[in-house]
Design brief:
The protein has 314 residues and is α+β, with helices and mostly antiparallel strands. Helix content is 46%, strand content 19%. The protein has ten helices and eleven strands. It has helices at 2-5, 9-42, 46-59, 70-105, 112-119, 126-131, 138-144, 207-220, 270-279, 295-307; strands at residues 148-152, 155-156, 166-167, 169-175, 180-191, 196-204, 223-224, 246-250, 253-259, 266-267, 284-289. Strand 10, helix 9 (270-279) and strand 11 (284-289) form a beta-alpha-beta unit. The longest helix is centred in the first third of the chain and has 36 residues, at 70-105. The radius of gyration is 41 Å and the shape is globular.
């Protein structure tokens, strides 16, 4: 009886193998069929999708296009122009800053004052201006102060009967045998908007070299401006105006500057606004006499007045 119950391993394998094959075949086949059937049922053709999208678009109401008035169109154009102008100014400022860094790195001072500034012995420009030391290298100013520059409109573009608009370049001609030789001159103002300002004139056969010369000379002519708040309308103690009434002159032009309360603004001409803004003055009254259309003398008279803020002589 024991021999019948015991089976060899070969017989056990023969009996188990067909059972496993049947189970696998029965379980695997219906799964594949069910998945394919579900995909076929849920799938939609691209044509039906397009038709549904078109129906949704037809159902949405079409909004009428808004027509802008002339004033709104002008405002939009002005905004676009101002944004582009700001981008150009920012790019130009970045380029100028990079050029200044490169120039300062390659700067080899020739004067004793320049060597002291390069060595770090002098770190404040007021030390130079208070002692009346003469600046002969523009890199001295660039290394001590963050300078901003602007051009004064002293030239005039060509127009009939002298009706041309003001511009930054003044053009003159010299008669020679070869023909007319034009020269351009520019009038620059520099400052840090914190009590320092300077002016300079540059001449060259082209516009850009004339501008560079003018800016270089303006840095050499930098002066200190003492600010205050001497207006009777305000409490005092601020530094947005001037300490007292001052008057400057150049040629036939007389410029009188009077302190104003904070918030008044610059009550001066357009060209004088550039000078006072770079000097760090925000509130001031003014009065001018003489041939004020001569822009060169007008700006020189303003600088002569600002020089008097450093002394008690009015």
């Amino acid at each position: 009886m024991e021999e019948d119950k015991s089976k060899s391993p070969e017989t056990e394998l023969k009996e188990e193998k067909p059972i496993e094959a049947k189970e696998v075949s029965e379980e695997s086949e219906p799964k594949e069929v069910s998945e394919t059937e579900e995909l076929d049922a849920n799938a939609t053709s691209p044509e039906t999708e397009l038709e549904e999208a078109e129906e949704k678009l037809d159902e949405k109401p079409i909004e009428p296009e808004k027509q802008l008035s002339e004033e709104e169109q002008k405002k939009l154009v002005e905004e676009m122009v101002n944004k582009e102008r700001e981008k150009v100014i920012k790019d130009r400022d970045m380029i100028e800053k990079e050029k200044l860094k490169e120039a300062l790195e390659a700067w080899k001072p020739k004067t004793k004052l320049g060597k002291d500034v390069r060595a770090g012995k002098i770190k404040n420009i007021n030390d130079l201006l208070d002692k009346g030391m003469k600046i002969l290298e523009p890199e001295i100013v660039d290394s001590l102060v963050e300078i901003k520059s602007d051009l004064i409109s002293m030239g005039q573009s060509k127009g009939k009967f002298g009706g041309g608009k003001r511009r930054a370049w003044r053009q003159t001609q010299r008669k020679t045998k070869e023909g007319n030789v034009p020269t351009f001159s520019a009038f620059a103002v520099v400052g840090d908007e914190n009590g320092h300002v300077g002016i300079g004139i540059g001449k060259a056969s082209e516009t850009l070299p004339a501008r560079d010369k003018a800016i270089r000379k303006a840095k050499l002519n930098l002066i200190k401006v003492t600010r205050g708040d001497g207006s009777f309308d305000s409490v005092g103690g601020g530094n947005t105006s001037i300490p007292y009434i001052i008057e400057g002159k150049a040629g036939s032009v007389r410029v009188k500057l009077m302190p104003a309360a904070p918030g008044t603004g610059l009550v001066v001409g357009d060209e004088l606004k550039k000078v006072l803004k770079l000097a760090g003055i925000k509130d001031v009254y003014s009065r001018t006499n003489g041939k004020i259309r001569t822009t060169f003398n007008l700006v020189k008279a303003c600088i002569d007045a600002l020089k008097k803020t450093n002394s008690k002589e009015k």
